[in-house]
Every structure is written in C-alpha cells, then in structure tokens.
C-alpha cells in the first residue's frame, strides 16, 4: 500500500472514531457532571499516553514545542470536550452534529492564520455562507433550540479548529501520535487534580452505558482517534486527508439515530449537506 492510500485509510478510521464522540458524550453527561467527565477522560487518556511514550522511549519535546503543545491541549484536550459536554446538557447530539460541519472550515481558518496564507475571496464567501446556514438553522428551531447550547457548540468548534491546525502543523516535526500524547501528558497534572476535586460522592446511579461512554471518549475520542488522524495527515497530506472531516456529520447523525434513538429531521440533513458544500468550496479556494 502506498503512502497516500495509507494516509486516506488512517484518516477515515480517525473520522469514524471521532463521529462517535458526541453521541457517547450525550450518554455520559446523563450520569456524570460535565466538568468531571472532561477532566476524567483527559486524565485516563493522559495516563495511557504517558505509558505509550515511556514504552516507545520517545524523546522529550524541545522547548519551542511546549507552546504549540499547550495550544493543542487547550483546544482538543480541555476546550472541545468541556464545551461539548456542557452544550449536550441543553441540545441533542443530533442537533450538535450539524455544527461539526463547520469544523473543517474552522481548522482551515486557523491554518490560514498560522500559515500566513492569502486565500481567494471565494474562500470567505463560502465561509460566510456556511456560518449563515448554521446560524439560521439554530434560530429556525424555535422552542427546540437552546441559545446557550448552540453558543457552546460554536465555541467548541472554534477551539477545536485551533487545536487541529496547531497539532497538524506540529505533527510534521514531532510525529503524529506523539503530538496528542505529549499534549495529554502536559495537561495530566491539572486534569488529575481536578478529577479528585470533582470526584462525585457516589457512582451508584451511573449506568453501564454511561461507563462505556466514559471509556469510549477517554480512549477512542481522546487518544486512539488522534493516533489514526494525525498519522493520516502526516502520510496523505493535511489538506487532502483533512477533507475526510466532511464525512463526520453523516457518520454522527447515523450513530445518533441508531444508538440513541434521536430524531434526525430532514432539515438537519439538508443543513448538514449544505454546510458540507460550503466547507468543501471554502477549502478548494483556500490557496
């Protein structure tokens, strides 16, 4: 298998794993406090990441890599998990998945900012169109919508795009799985402390699906997914393999409907497809 094909396969596996994050988080926040869920999943993944780094005897990152790693940790270790967990207390995972359609665009925008690129005007036209579609969808939901939940999801997309772009850039020199592992280790002391602080008085009411969901978001969403994702970006190219993010809303909506029994309305599907079209157009004119 050539390097490009391997990159696409690894990237697709990563996207499929990430697609289960919101439905799993939705199940988990029904039993766990959102802050505890965020710090516990980061703490569990951090311990596993530390073990991997020790087993494979990875050298410590250079001093110049610490700031980018801190940005990755802020975006994908703390920011996105916490903001989505808080948002999913107010909206369904099916509703939140529509916002994921903006994630590739958020990543591209931060890639432009960090890389100093000058995209053509068409890029910004598609960007504004996609944002308008998402905002219009949220407003059109009326009583079913939650301004707080929608705002938290938009914030989650922004910080996640920042973390993705910074991690993709850093993976070129530090290595794919090493980036997320070191970011997790960097945040591990604080996450461990906060896990103790927010430790619930009892787990008696926690159901088996909630425990499985905690395990999924800790190991797969927080670590294993990034192993495949950054490997795919490194082998197949960030711009090319990054297009696979456009499939994530489709996978997520299917999981929300099949596993959680949530209603996926025609409007959700229509907006998701339209947003994906806008993101695809924006990415095409990013250079």
UniProtKB/TrEMBL annotation:
Main location: membrane
Domain EamA span(s) in chain numbering: 7-128, 148-279
Pfam families recorded: EamA
Gene Ontology cellular component terms for the protein in this record: membrane
Keyword Transmembrane attached: yes
Protein's membrane topology: Multi-pass membrane protein
Positions of transmembrane segments: 7-29, 35-56, 68-88, 94-113, 122-142, 148-167, 179-199, 211-230, 237-261, 267-286
Keywords noted in UniProt: Membrane, Transmembrane, Transmembrane helix
Subcellular location: Membrane
Membrane as UniProt keyword: yes
InterPro entries named among the record's database cross-references: AA-Vitamin_Transporters, EamA_dom, EmrE-like
Family the entry assigns: Belongs to the EamA transporter family.
Entries under PANTHER family matching the protein: EAMA DOMAIN-CONTAINING PROTEIN, INNER MEMBRANE TRANSPORTER
Protein name: Transporter
Organism: Devosia insulae DS-56
């Amino acid at each position: 298998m050539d390097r490009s094909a391997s990159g696409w396969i690894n990237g697709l596996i990563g996207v499929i794993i990430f697609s289960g994050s919101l439905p799993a988080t939705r199940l988990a926040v029904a039993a766990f406090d959102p802050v505890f869920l965020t710090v516990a999943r980061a703490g569990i993944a951090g311990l596993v990441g530390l073990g991997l780094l020790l087993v494979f005897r990875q050298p410590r990152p250079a001093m110049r890599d610490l700031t980018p790693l801190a940005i990755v940790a802020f975006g994908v270790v703390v920011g996105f998990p916490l903001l989505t967990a808080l948002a999913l207390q107010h909206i369904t995972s099916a509703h939140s998945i529509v916002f994921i359609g903006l994630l590739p665009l958020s990543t591209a925008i931060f890639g432009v900012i960090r890389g100093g690129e000058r995209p053509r005007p068409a890029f910004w036209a598609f960007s504004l169109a996609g944002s308008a579609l998402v905002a219009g969808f949220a407003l059109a939901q009326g009583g079913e919508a939650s301004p707080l939940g929608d705002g938290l999801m938009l914030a989650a997309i922004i910080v996640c795009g920042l973390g993705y772009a910074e991690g993709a850039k850093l993976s070129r020199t530090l290595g794919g799985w090493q980036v997320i592992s070191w970011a997790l280790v960097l945040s591990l002391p604080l996450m461990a402390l906060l896990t103790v602080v927010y430790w619930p008085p009892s787990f008696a009411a926690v159901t088996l699906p909630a425990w499985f969901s905690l395990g999924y978001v800790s190991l797969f969403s927080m670590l294993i997914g990034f192993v495949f994702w950054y490997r795919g970006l490194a082998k197949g190219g960030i711009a090319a393999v990054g297009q696979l993010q456009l499939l994530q809303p489709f996978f997520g909506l299917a999981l929300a409907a099949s596993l959680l029994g949530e209603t996926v309305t025609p409007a959700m599907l229509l907006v998701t497809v339209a947003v994906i079209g806008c993101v695809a157009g924006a990415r095409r004119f990013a250079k």
